[in-house]
Structure prediction request, 284 residues.
Amino acid sequence: MTRSRFVCRLMFVLCCCAIAACVFAQGQQGSGEYKPVERQDGKDVVWLPTAQALVDKMLDMAKVTPQDYVIDLGSGDGRTVITAAKRGARALGVEYNPNMVALAKRNAEKEGVSDKAKFMQGDLFQTDFSQATVLTLFLLPEINYQLRPKILNMKPGTRIVSNTFDMSEWIADQTATIDDSSKCPEYCTALLWIVPAKVEGAWKLPQAELVIEQSFQTFSGRLNSGAEMLPIKNGRLNGDQISFTAGAAQYIGRVNGNSMQGMLKSGDRTAEWSAIRISKAASR
Ligand SMILES: C[S@@+](CC[C@H](N)C(=O)[O-])C[C@H]1O[C@@H](n2cnc3c(N)ncnc32)[C@H](O)[C@@H]1O
Prediction:
């Protein structure tokens, strides 16, 4: 073979290789967008998307408004964050898998809400979510349980909504299920908790002492007034709103750290009441 024929052949082979590489690269681009597979492994929990009907239900139960800051821990393809952003809320998804983060960002872009729907790659156990006014979860019961102390330290009134999984003995304030399998084939129950104010301890009222033993959003205890000791009944917290009965009197009020105040009703009589916490321990 002459030298020029060899060069020609070499050029031909190189051209073929270049064309093949281009075709391959184009094919990769066309079909190469990341497509997650249901139940694929995740760091602490697999990816399985919440049915859109249940996303809507969860955000309805949490009464999401444009004033809210919604955080979804383990945000997957971003649907909860995107739906919250469409309701005008600021929303953040925390997701360990970087491919899912990129996919969620693309989805937010397509839906025209990337100004309000943000996504970050991170581990939900290492992320500070304390600023959320609404926290959404589709994780596992044991993960909810591990997160529970941090959740109970969030601002009273923060709404927590979980797809299907509970918080052990912290019973949900509200539960709803979607029964239509065409809208939600599996994992169709939403649970809502409202972070209760912390009221455990001894409180001083002008004429009495109130001792409260708290269990999440409920409490019992006693109201000591002179020689009289009245058991507390129907003690309940809805965020920072408190209500209870002592004897014939029904108390309602608002808790603000170590003080609380409100109105009491006893028969025809209504009056204002207020209390200051003197100890965080119920038994002194
Ligand atoms: C069951 S999916 C829920 C996805 C989404 N929240 C929804 O409801 O459609 C759980 C998600 O959590 C992610 N995940 C698992 N462990 C995580 C961790 N330690 N930190 C952040 N995300 C995690 C998974 O990759 C998966 O996308």
Observations:
- The mean pLDDT is 92.
- The pocket of S-adenosylmethionine is lined by residues 42-45, 47-50, 72, 74-76, 79-80, 94-97, 100, 123-125, 138, 163 (CB under 6 Å).
